[in-house]
Amino acid sequence: MTTSMFKTKIERHPERAATQEAIEILKEGLVAHVGFIDEGLPYVIPMSYEYDAELEAVYLHGSLHSRALKLIAAGAPVCLEITLLEGLVYSKAAMFHSMNYRSALAFGHGQQVTAHDEMQRVFAQMISRYFEGRQPGIDYLEAPAKHLDQTLFVKVQIDKLSAKQRQGGPNGPKDRKPDAIGSAGVVTMPRGCPFHAQSNTQPDTHNQTQPKQEPDHV
User: Which residue, 39, 50, 64, 128, is the most exposed by fewest CB within 10 angstroms?
Assistant: First the structure.
């Protein structure tokens, strides 16, 4: 199957195309909406992920019984969408309310990863990205071989990539007229992951006496 099957040209608001931003969006995103086809029906599910810029690949992981991951691991075409919401734009006219965002669309094909060293490397990078400052052996224990063997780990090789964005204030016909009825402006959204290793986050001690023996997705 060739990469020509993937359509990445932005036809609505082509002035918002931002393909050069796609890699940064993949690096900053926290949730990938993963699209795939199963028995002729389309599905989209949210997943955490890790992007490797050097390999131009996205890693996904989950249960060995995951329908989506089994399909992707078998080489089925997959689409991943990541959105960074940066602002809510309000206008003096109903139809000119909008959002400021950056979004990336990646198309590719997957393959299963079984090498434990590769899995450990990606897990460490992913945890460090979602939970800034956390280090294996200090803040948490690396996954034992048993847990790795209970996890379906998939690398999606990116074949095509595009991005789109909207920035700036409202563009309603009366938004810059101070005497017009209503209000206009932008509500800025927080960016990045809120976790920091030295933050005031309180540890959960509820289950410390009975540690869980399997990962959450098993």
Answer: 39
